[in-house]
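As a warm-up, study this chain.
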Amino acid sequence: MSFLESGQSRPQLTQLERQKPPVFENLLTALHNAFSRTAIMQSLLFNGTPHQSAGSSVLVNGDCFDWMDHQAENLIHAVVTDPPYGVKEFDADQLVKRASGNGGVWRIPPTFDGHKRAPLPRFTALNDAERIRLTEFFVRLGHSMFRVLRPGGHVFLAGNSYLSQSVFAAICESGFEFRGEIIRLVRTLRGGDRPKNAEEEFPDIVSMPRGCYEPWGLFRKPLPKGMTVSECLRKYQTGGLRRLPSGGPFNDVIPSERTSRAERDIAPHPSIKPQSLMRQLVYAALPTGAGTVMDPFMGSGSTIAACKALSIQGIGIEASKEYYDMAVKAIPKLAKIVVSTSVREHSKPSLLPFFDDQTQ
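Now compare it with the structure written out below.
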C-alpha cells in the first residue's frame, strides 16, 4: 500500500530535491495532492447509490448515514455542512405546507417595510418529543462523521441561536472536541416582531430580539494520543485551520450578508448559504490546502460550489432527488459567482472575501 492510500505523510524530500528551485517543490506538491484526490475517490463505495462527478468532486443522491457507514474509516479531511435540524422542517408534509403558504413548522412572516419575507423554520415551537428526536439525530450524525473523518479533521456545522446548545452538546457526545464557534454576522430579519395579534396593543414590545448572527459549531476529531498538531499535519493533513491568504489568522467572527438574489435564482433552496461565506469556510477547513471536504446535507450544493471555485475536492450527499437535481445544475453556476464585500478584497476573485487582518 502506498503512502497515498494509507493516509501517511508525504515522504521527506531528498537532498537533491531540496537543492531544486521552488517550482520543483511546488510541482511535487501538486502531484502529491492530485494522487491523494485520486486515491480517496477510488476508495469510495457507492453500492448502487446514484452518483456523478462534478469536476473533481462527487455528488451522491442517497442517505448520508447509510453512505458514511459504508465508507472506510479515517478517509475525509473535513466536513462543512448546514444540516436540517432532524425534527421535521424537511419532512414531505412540511414542505407541502411551506409551498402552499400554510406554514406548519415553517413560519410565514409578515411583510417588513413592504418586503415579502421568506418562510423560516419555527424552532421555538418544538415540543419535548421533538427535542429528544433532535438530540438523537445529532448524536447519530456525530458518530457517522467521526468514523469517516481523519484524526484532527474539523467539522463546521451551521446552527441557530435557539438550538445550538443542544445540537453542539449532542455532537460532542459522539466523541468530538468542541473547538468554539464561528459567528457569522448577518441580519436575517428573524425575530424582532411585535406580539402576534396584539401589535397595536403592544407597539413597543418585541417577542424576541432581531437575529443578527448565525453560530457555526466548530469541532475536531481528537488527535491520536501523544501526537502534536504538527505531526498530525504531516501524517493526516489535518489538526489545524488554514490561515488567510493575507497571512493573518482565520477569525471566529465573519461579517457576512444574506444570500444574494442571483444565487437564490440559481438555486432556490430555502436554506442556501452565500458563496462569500462558504468559500471562506472550505478554504479554512483544509490547513495544508490538500484533502477532501464533505457535505452530508448538500442541499442545492453551495458547499460543493465553493469547493469547485477554489479547486478543492468535495463530496456532497443529498437524500432529496429534487434538491440533488437542483445541485447538479446549480453547482457550476454558483462556482462562477464573483463575490465581494465592503472589506478589502484579495487579488484572486475566487477567494473573495478574506479579511486582511495581519494580526499574528
